[in-house]
Amino acid sequence: MNFPKNFLFGAASSSYQIEGAWDEDGKGESIWDHFAHIPGKIKNGENGDIACDFYHRYRDDIQLMKEIGLQAFRFSINWPRVIPDGYGKVNIKGLDFYNRLVDELLAAGIKPCVNLYHWELPQTLQNLGGWMNRDCAKWFSEFSSVIADKLGDRVDDWMTLNEPMMSASLGYVLGYHAPGLKKPLQFFKVVHHLLLGHGLSVKAVRAEAPSCKIGIALDLRPVYPESESIKDLQAVKNADALMRRTFLDPIFNGTYPPLFNKQNILARARIKEGDLKIISTPIDYVGINTYSRDKVRYSRWAIGTGFTGPSEKTVDKEYVKDGIQYTAMNWEVYPQCIYEILMMLKKDYGNPDVYVTENGAAFTDTVENNRVHDIKRISYLKDHLTGVKQALDEGSNCKGYFVWSFIDNFEWSEGYCKRFGLIYVDYKTQKRIIKDSGLWYKNLITSNKC
Length: 450
Ligand code: FCB
What we know:
Number of helices: 15
Strand order of the largest sheet: 1-2-3-4-5-7-11-12
Bound molecules: beta-D-fucopyranose
Number of domains: 1
Distance between the termini: 6 Å
Shape: globular
Largest sheet: 8 strands, parallel, barrel
Order of helices and strands: EHHHEHHEHHEHHEEHHHEEEEHEHEEEH
CATH architecture: Alpha-Beta Barrel
Structural class: alpha/beta
CATH class: Alpha Beta
CATH superfamily: Glycosidases
Number of strands: 14
CATH topology: TIM Barrel
């Protein structure tokens, strides 16, 4: 099964999850530094202070990427590393890190794909309300300009935000993620400001790097009902509007779905004239982060969607129930998920260019004689790539695929126990081992087929 000739195979990461060096070289505090340091917020009291120590080890890690044959590496910029207070003075040492990282990737023949926001808001801005404050959109676009000005001569591929739905729901409604707030009435306001920030950032990056390609990474999953009851079927419609159309409609069509408008009265998110025009500034592609599907049931909470967020119930390890495999994140393995999302984008949003910006699985890994035989991860990746191929055959404009993740890392509120990497990390020694899935991926990239 061959992929198109220019199809891009990469792997993804994010700054807080891998970099460490949380207070080095003039870096400011991010909401994740702050949140993870509060006792009880993260499993086993862990935090990202050191993580994979990528800040110091990036050169060696890029050699490992090269060994796997990665064609592209998606990474994010830690905002307070570059602008410690969120706006104003630039920390040259922080900016220089990303400058060196880009040069090193290019020297290794790996395409750098920059994601501007993977949830690390400067804590100083959170103290001013974070994304509940409309000014945050403006500060984000200023930050985007600084980065594009520095890297835009060498970086062609950009993303504004990673999963704004997760920032708003896990961060501001459920409180599982930084900033850890439980303010459901602020949800739509936060979403609107994030999207406004996205639109302004697209313009800011293009102003500095006119020939670049820029998009956004959205978490999109097919939605299914838990039962055939009328209420659950209605919940599917609501969840679809809330989790997908609330982001896709304004970006592609310049409108919010009716459900958003109804709730918005409650949320008092002041949508100003011209906002939707900014939000719908044309993008070059949409990134999709897709791992599974959602099964929803009606509930009076969360606008009748039954949506309670992916971290609702955590488990220690993967398991099989009723013949269905679940990962160590308690996520159902549903290999058609990417195919279904790609087809939905084709049907409902004019078949835009798409990159699968994240897909992968956490399974329990064990080291045997310096090897990690992660067969379940290989079959997960293979089955999902089969879905990508099927969508391509049916006319999808999918242009590339990024495994989550390049390396085992800090999995947010779950800490270090959930391993997603193509590369295994022994966190005590920081020793790396390329897993069998990494070797399998290398073979796939070389042969261009799976
Ligand atoms: C996504 C996040 C990413 C990682 C994966 C497992 O929602 O974008 O950082 O945690 O889930």
